[in-house]
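Technical annex, item 7. During the second reporting period the consortium partners agreed on a shared format for inverse folding records so that results from different sites could be compared directly. Each record opens with the tokenized structure and is followed by the designed sequence. A conforming record, contributed by the partner at site C, is shown below for reference.
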């Protein structure tokens, strides 16, 4: 680790006091990435910009992170990977897809990750920066996967994805954060039976 500065170039003179290559540098990079992603979004932020904002050599960003996707995911600090939670959903027809979306939400939130998810959701609602980053992640990762392969113009697909999100986010808030009864105590199969038809309509039926 001590050889990093000579391998990857010289750190600007104004930044030489920092301990390049330490965990402190990794946290500086993450903090800079959070600010830039929140302000400019994923596409509007480059790794070179992140390095400049953090005051580190650009090669150090590549040393700690595999690429921009990983840096973004770690910046958002989600308790679970949406791609893993929704794996395979894009191959299903709208009816099966709607049910699997609800089941995936229930599996995740009724796992040991529930406390972390509640804390994350509450923290996100109270932070403009985290809300902006979560919006970017949901648009790029969650909604693209949910809507993959379904018909419609890009505008219609975006609207349908937004409407699906109202059901999913509403379910998470009411069942697991607010804990409104009787939904909070309803059996998972009953939740799927009640919620999936709305999601199926938003996915493919006339709006």
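Designed sequence (site C submission):
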């Amino acid at each position: 680790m001590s050889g990093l500065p000579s391998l990857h170039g010289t750190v600007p003179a104004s930044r030489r006091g920092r301990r390049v290559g330490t965990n402190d540098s990794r946290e500086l990079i993450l903090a800079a990435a959070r600010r830039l992603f929140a302000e400019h979004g994923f596409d509007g932020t480059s790794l070179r910009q992140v390095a400049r904002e953090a005051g580190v050599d650009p090669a150090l960003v590549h040393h700690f992170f595999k690429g921009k996707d990983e840096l973004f995911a770690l910046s958002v600090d989600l308790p679970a990977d949406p791609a893993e939670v929704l794996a395979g959903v894009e191959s299903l027809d709208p009816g099966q897809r709607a049910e699997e979306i609800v089941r995936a939400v229930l599996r995740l939130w009724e796992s040991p990750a529930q406390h972390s998810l509640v804390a994350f959701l509450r923290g996100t609602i109270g932070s403009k920066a985290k809300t902006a980053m979560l919006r970017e992640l949901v648009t790029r990762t969650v909604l693209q996967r949910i809507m993959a392969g379904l018909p419609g113009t890009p505008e219609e697909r975006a609207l349908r994805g937004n409407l699906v999100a109202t059901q999913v986010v509403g379910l998470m808030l009411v069942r697991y954060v607010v804990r409104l009864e009787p939904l909070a105590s309803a059996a998972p199969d009953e939740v799927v039976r009640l919620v999936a038809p709305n999601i199926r309509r938003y996915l493919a039926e006339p709006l």
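The CA atoms of residues 201 and 207 lie 7 Å apart. The chain has two domains: 4-76, 82-204. All partners now use this format for quarterly exchanges.
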